[in-house]
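Comment thread on ticket #2218

A.B. wrote:
> Attaching the input chain for the structure job we discussed in standup.
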Amino acid sequence: MRRILVVDDDPNICDLLKMYLEKEGFNVRIAGDGGTALQEFAKAVPDLILLDVMLPVLDGWGVLTRVRETSRVPVIMLTAKGETFDKINGLNMGADDYVVKPFSSEELLLRIEAHLRRHKANLAYAKATQREGSNKTGNLEIFFNRYEVYLRGKKIDLTAKEFEILALLASNPGQAFTRGQIYEHIWGRNSNVDESSITVFMRKIREKIEDNPSQPKYLLTVWRVGYKFAERV
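C.D. wrote:
> Ran it. Output below, let me know if you need it in another format.
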């Protein structure tokens, strides 16, 4: 039975989600604060997390950061804050989707099922095409299976999503990807991410790996198409 951890400090939302999801065949665990959420995460090893942002003890961003230190489990943020900045912040920190309250239970279920399918497919793909090497271009070295990037031997701190975007392009050097292709590969077709946010991610990655972000050597813009990773520098 698939396991879902619901993290929200509103007992009514927790009860409704638990009743609805259990009816759909899920095993549901509840946590009302960030500290309990981390305990339940370690104990229950859920297949997906529904995570509120505004939580006592430790907020949703803190929980997400701790979860991403050890796991790629799908995380859907549930929050009343629907501004674009908040969405980009959550996705940049490693969330897989962002659902604004109030939400439709039917739509939420569709998103849960989509992310569970995609996560299962990603695990199968990773197992079938497991990378043990790295991409070294110029002074930049990317270790795919370790989620690590080094520039001139110094480790660069990228968020999980930043790394996944960079790894997608670097594993196919010279191949141009549209924003839509990047979006679909990283977040999935049914995600609630605006394709324009890809531009923001590219800017943030360039600020970390390029000597001159306005004149990039590694992450190149392909005019009227999208982006590609340089074949050589």
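A.B. wrote:
> Thanks. Noting for the ticket: The chain has a mean pLDDT of 85.
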